[in-house]
Design a protein that fits this description.
Layout (H helix, E strand, L loop, with lengths): L10 H24 L2 E6 L5 E3 L1 H7 L22 H14 L3 E8 L5 E13 L2 E11 L1 H35 L10 H13 L6 E9 L2 H8 L1 H19 L3 E5 L4 E6 L6 H20 L6 E9 L5 H17 L5 E3 L1
Helix pairs in contact: 6-7, 7-8
Length: about 325
């Protein structure tokens, strides 16, 4: 009797099996760390299998074998059901890869957000299948939503701070009662005036003072006096601001600076128009006022801002000494 045998070196086969086992283990670890649930759709039988992680995601009891036919569809959120079913049927019909985001409602009523990807797979050793993975992205979406909310809140707060800063800046340069520029704003205007091209053109300084304003306060009260100031300021602004700059410089005093003054008659005309307007609005309140006005004109290069102030102020003083309701040109 003789025995005949064949010895085969399976070292390479063992190495391949070990490498495959290692790859499978690495894939299993990666899938577990990523929180992926794996599903498989057999085109021939229509059976769908889920791994344990996918069952956990959908709130389905762990079991072996295919899942019941309506397990997945019954858990689709009503808002997404039609869209997801249509996209899935198209992918199965065309055997194309697909990617979907949708919501599910678990058996305990909790709504979760799912991201699903599937690929058509076919080879010589198995039946055609659709292999896919689902993972729960609810926490990611909620975090993104919270971050978006925080970003929106931060942006809103920043805008509020910017607007508040602008309002503070505006308030710091405007009189709170009349809304006209104040002395600080006036100084900024004078600085620009001295350094700009306006220094080579004619300017006019017009000082205006309400005559007997104390009488209005004593007769009608301070609240009426405030309203009167507001009305007169509005009248002056409507007539003067189109031609230059107007500021409230004191209790019942105002200063107008006109730019590009070609002749001395122009400041007189503006002042006269402002006086008439102020008398009209104050008269409508039951206490018509008059104004004393002092005017100085010239070129900023010919004399300093201080000289303009002094000259207009002296003219105003003379107008007041003459009994008010007078315009004096220096």
């Amino acid at each position: 009797m003789r025995f005949i045998g064949v010895d085969t070196d399976v070292t390479s086969m063992k190495a391949t099996e070990q490498a495959r086992a290692l790859n499978e283990k690495q894939l299993e670890i990666a899938v577990a760390m990523a929180g992926l649930g794996i599903w498989n759709l057999n085109f021939s039988t229509g059976a769908v299998t889920w791994d344990s992680r996918l069952r956990e995601i959908y709130g389905v009891p762990k079991a072996d074998g295919p899942i019941p036919d309506d397990t997945w569809e019954s858990r689709l959120h009503p808002d997404d059901r039609y869209r997801v079913l249509w996209a899935t049927k198209e992918a199965i019909k065309t055997r194309q890869d697909y990617s979907l985001d949708y919501k599910i409602v678990r058996s305990d009523g909790e709504v979760r957000h799912i991201r699903s990807k599937g690929s058509f797979v076919v080879n010589g050793f198995s039946q055609p299948t659709m292999l896919g993975v689902d993972w729960d992205v609810t926490d990611d979406l909620m975090q993104a939503f919270r971050l978006e909310q925080l970003h929106r809140i931060a942006s809103d707060r920043l805008e509020e701070l910017v607007q508040a800063q602008k309002e503070l800046e505006r308030m710091s340069q405007h009189d709170q009662l009349t809304g006209l520029p104040n002395r600080r704003s006036l100084q900024h205007h004078l600085d620009r005036l001295q350094s700009s091209e306006l220094s080579v053109s004619g300017v006019a300084f017009i000082m205006l003072d309400i005559d007997e304003f104390k009488t209005a306060n004593d007769t009608h009260g301070h609240a009426f006096g405030d309203r009167l100031l507001q009305a007169v300021a509005g009248a002056l602004e409507s007539e003067i601001s189109p031609h230059g700059f107007l500021a409230r410089t004191g209790g019942d005093e105002f200063l107008a600076i006109l730019d590009n003054v070609a002749n001395a008659d122009f400041p007189m005309a503006v002042a006269a128009s402002a006086i008439v307007k102020a008398q009209q609005v104050s008269g409508a309140m039951g206490h018509a006022i008059t104004l004393s006005v002092g005017i100085d004109t010239g070129c900023v290069r010919s004399k300093s801002i201080e000289e303009f102030f002094s000259s207009a102020d002296r003219a105003l003083y003379r107008a007041k000494r003459l009994g008010g309701a007078t315009v004096i040109v220096a």
